[in-house]
Amino acid sequence: MNTFTKVSPYANEPFTNFGLEENVKAMQAAIAKVKSELGREYPLYIGTEKVVTEAKITSINPGNVDEIIGFVSKADQKLAEKAMNVALETFETWKKVPARERAEYLFKAAALMRDRKHEFSALMILESGKNYVEADVDTAEAIDFIEFYAREMIRLSQINETQPLAKIPGENNQISYIPLGVGVIIPPWNFPLAICVGMTIAAVVSGNTVLLKPASTTPVIAHKFVALMEEVGLPAGVINFIPGSGAEVGDYLTTHPKTRFISFTGSKEIGLRINKLAADVAPGQIWIKRVIAEMGGKDGIVVDETADLDAAASAIVASAFGFQGQKCSAGSRAIIVESVYDIVVDKVVALTNQLQSGLPEHNFAAGPVIDKGSYDKILDYIEIGKTEGTLLAGGDKAEGNGYYIQPTVFGDVSGKARVMQEEIFGPVLAIAKAKDWKEAIAMYNDTEFGLTGSYFSTNEERISEALDTVHCGNLYINRKCTGALVGVHPFGGFNMSGTDSKAGGYDYLMLLTQAKLTSRKI
């Protein structure tokens, strides 16, 4: 008989208080441990095999480009096909494992990750350039996803008891949520643990098997997660770890006739490409592939003249520059009513100028951006911004042996300017002036995206209208537009921000399952 973990009510994982010296020392010790393991080689996971390839992805520290995090074996199409066959074979047994038993692997994984929390965070600090708080929050969110989706699968498996169908005489009717099949998981680099874990775990606990293709800039932290799932005893072949080129491996698996679903988080351009490729039915394909896509945003904070202006300015800076603005939820736009525009802008600039750049392992507020491509793109946008608005802070490279850019603020920017319309994904904030609160909301809505937004006001009638008319998947009132919590703020956006998948919400696992109705005459 299986002995299952007692399931307590879901609660979010607490964040670490780095105001306490013992927590700072614990993180420093974890960083030292991770540094002692740098430069190792990491294999692919294909079923029971650990495959080492000649071709490697070299993961580097974006805050110190001379430091190599690790060398990760790189899959090609032949290995991707092998992984697909293993995943297909494993699916036939994994789909029959009861939901409560699948969830048990997750509870064990959450406990183990919690025990090694700083170690996971330390690796992210070095591989992705997060400071202590950003890395700690990422690891906490990963634990949250594991805990939340485990409970969600148990709930769905008990749906006939907790939410029974209407009864009619002479029939027994039940509904069950069964897995889809083999899925391709393509997570981003900016939440290299949390989103990677969340996308993968949701698919696995639902009874699917997966091919995990991590981001090429952060493959080592993804490997650490896969190794942890092996450690807790997850059957080989449920998660197959196949880092590789998007153009070679990603496209091949997206168009594969046996791929049942693609779960993607990343740029609008790649998301649209995946959606287009997945829409074509390949020879031998007998289903319409599902695409779950979260594709970014051009998020904004609206401030009217009744708002708490200090709170608004703090939220604007935190939303714009947390993790160097490299969040799809980042508040890269601020739209301020003209009567308080100058006051808020002065406060924003003062707070921005307090942000110091430096090595994430030394816990500076502003670290590097992820790689050379992002670095060059962001600097190009800063030059564009100089022609579209008034440079108020930053505007140049920052010192350091990595991809450091000064937190940059532009004021007096038109709502139609490129820096107000295009996703920059870096430490660049554009501020526009609106004549009144209604124009400010209209300016916020004037975007092809629709992920997160904030409205700062103390006027209840205006707040009520904002709740109805601000068009985004996650709208916050009088708080920053970043920092969604699993189970508290289900996350996903409208328009070109994706399929509004609501990760960390009570309907998310339905995207990874199919509802089967069984009706029996009695």
From TrEMBL:
Entry's transmembrane regions: none
Keyword NAD: yes
Aldehyde dehydrogenase domain: residues covered: 55-516
Pathway terms, separated by semicolons: Amino-acid degradation; L-proline degradation into L-glutamate; L-glutamate from L-proline: step 2/2
Pfam families on file: Aldedh
Reaction catalyzed: L-glutamate 5-semialdehyde + NAD(+) + H2O = L-glutamate + NADH + 2 H(+)
Keyword entries, A-Z: NAD, Oxidoreductase
EC number: 1.2.1.88
PROSITE patterns per UniProt: ALDEHYDE_DEHYDR_CYS
GO MF, one example: L-glutamate gamma-semialdehyde dehydrogenase activity
NCBIfam families given in the database record: D1pyr5carbox2, PRK03137.1
Protein name: L-glutamate gamma-semialdehyde dehydrogenase
